[in-house]
Design brief:
Blueprint lengths: L1 E5 L3 H12 L3 E5 L3 H8 L10 H10 L3 E4 L2 H5 L4 E4 L15 H13 L4 E5 L7 H11 L6 E5 L9 H6 L4 E4 L3 H10 L1 H5 L4 E4 L1 H32 L3 H9 L20 H14 L5 H24 L10 E5 L14 H11 L3 E5 L4 H7 L4 E2 L3 H5 L4 E4 L11 H7 L4 E4 L6 H6 L3 E3 L5
Parallel strand pairs: 1-2, 1-4, 2-3, 4-5, 5-6, 7-8, 9-10, 9-12, 10-11, 12-13, 13-14
Helix pairs in contact: 1-3, 5-6, 10-12, 10-13, 13-14
The chain binds uridine-5'-diphosphate-xylopyranose (UDX).
């Protein structure tokens, strides 16, 4: 079966490479010529573990190719995926659908066979209806169906998530849509991954509802962590205690500096906009969004307190370890590190930083922060070290070396990756999240 993937960004490229690995014939399309040129040379536009190898193998096997021409790429494809970006629209938080609709127009104008058009981009409820309207108004004579197939990939674990999904959601009311999607995901049917067929609107909402629920879970445990600090409880014990109730579940209950990334911040905002449009407020998600914004700045204040408070902070230096919104990615979007560095700089603190993959993208977002070539270079001369992202490389720091390099032995662990007793035994003032 031939599949076309329009948009070779994160979701498009990972999905395209995985579909090719299933044995399908896949063409990834992108209008960015330099991105396609680099892909032809085997250079990935994003950092994702295992992606370069997966792309390389499938290109070599002749199952995966790249082009800038949409008309050429979709010719003969039974399934055409739309996987272009849907960023937050500046000013109002609505998802910006202009890329999705522009692609739909172009597909309508160049369709040369019957095909199912699948929205994989995260799109608000009702977008499928508009894509269908655009295709119909193109006057195409070919048979088509518009299907919603939301993506649940986590950055850093995207290939594993794609190949072993908890579930696949396919939103369509049409038999043609079902048949083609069944064929697209046949290898996963064989794998016994559950496939949920729903209406198109339900599928569109599932993506937003899922992300909003996970964001809520994170912020619930984060606020519980604040209470733990006040009452002398340990948030990791509370997490384990509630998480082992099967109705709650153990995942997404790690307290930290707040959520970031390309999905949760944008999707919670877009869901609230939909709720507003339909006059059906989701007050719990409104509170989550506010609490998360507040938390990122509060983490900056937590670091300031660890160095003796904002009043005496001017001229001191803090080393930030980890800048990306989570490990195993170079993605800096809405990373808590940005707000933390800003809060420190506002108090006159000099900030040094190291991140294994994120420094290139971080530098323009964090003016004045001095990027260093490794963790110890960042720590050299610092009044405190703050772990912001839980990269494996920071889990086994040589504490004796940290102590000898830093000006003061202060460790702020915003991801709870150390045991308080171990760090204190090594002679540090140790501050973590929701633990005393
Ligand atoms: C998320 C969803 O998991 C995925 O299904 C969706 O398709 C896209 O958005 P991603 O943004 O890659 O994926 O990252 P994820 O691993 O979910 O983490 C999101 C944020 O939550 C990160 O900032 C992370 O640090 C934070 N988080 C996660 C916590 O603070 N605590 C947790 O227990 C889990």
């Amino acid at each position: 079966m031939k599949i076309a993937m329009v948009g070779s960004g994160y979701v498009g490229l990972v999905s395209g490479a995985c579909f090719a690995d299933f044995g399908h014939d896949v063409v990834c399309i992108d209008k960015d010529q330099s991105k396609i040129d680099r892909l032809h040379d085997g250079v990935m536009p994003i950092y994702e573990p295992g992606l370069a190898e997966l792309v390389g193998t499938n290109v070599k096997a002749g199952r995966l190719s790249f082009t800038t021409s949409l008309a050429e790429g979709i010719a003969g494809a039974s399934a055409i995926f739309i996987a272009v970006g849907t960023p937050s629209r500046r000013g109002d938080g609505h998802a910006d659908l202009s890329f999705v609709y522009a692609v739909a127009e172009e597909i309508g104008a160049s369709l040369s066979n019957d095909a199912v058009v699948v929205t994989k981009s995260t799109v608000p409820v009702g977008t499928g209806d508009e894509v269908e309207r655009i295709l119909r108004s193109s006057g195409t004579k070919h048979r088509f169906a518009v299907v919603s197939n939301p993506e649940f990939l986590r950055e850093g674990a995207a290939i594993g998530d794609f190949k072993h999904p908890d579930r696949i959601v396919i939103g369509t009311e049409e038999e043609f849509g079902r048949e083609v999607m069944h064929e697209v995901y046949r290898p996963l049917f064989l794998n016994e991954s559950p496939i949920l067929f729903t209406s198109r609107r339900s599928a569109e909402l599932i993506k937003y509802a899922g992300n909003a629920f996970l964001a809520t879970k994170i912020m619930f445990i984060n606020e519980m962590a604040d209470l733990c600090e006040k009452v002398g409880a340990n948030v990791q014990d509370v997490s384990r205690g509630i998480g082992s109730d099967k109705r709650i579940g153990p995942k997404f209950l790690n307290a930290g500096p707040g959520y970031g990334g390309s999905c949760f911040p944008k999707d919670t905002l877009a869901l609230l906009k939909t709720a507003e449009d339909y006059e059906s407020p989701i007050r719990i998600v409104e509170a989550v969004v506010k609490a998360n914004d507040h938390r990122k700045r509060a983490m900056g204040r937590k670091v300031l307190e660890a160095i003796g408070g904002a009043d005496t902070a001017r001229g001191k230096r803090v080393a930030l370890l980890g800048l990306t919104f989570k490990p195993n990615t170079d993605d800096m979007r809405d990373s808590p590190a940005i707000a933390i560095a800003q809060a420190l700089q506002d108090a006159g603190v000099e900030v040094t930083a190291y991140d294994p993959e994120g420094m290139e993208l971080a530098a323009p977002l964090m003016p004045g922060v001095v990027m260093k070539s490794d963790a110890y270079a960042a720590i050299d001369g610092a009044d405190a070290v703050a772990i912001v992202t839980e990269w494996d490389a920071f889990r086994a720091l040589d504490l004796a070396r940290v102590k000898s390099l830093a000006k003061a032995p202060v460790l702020v662990d915003l991801r709870n990756i150390y045991q308080p007793a171990d760090v204190r035994e090594a002679g540090f003032d140790y501050v973590s999240v929701g633990r005393s």
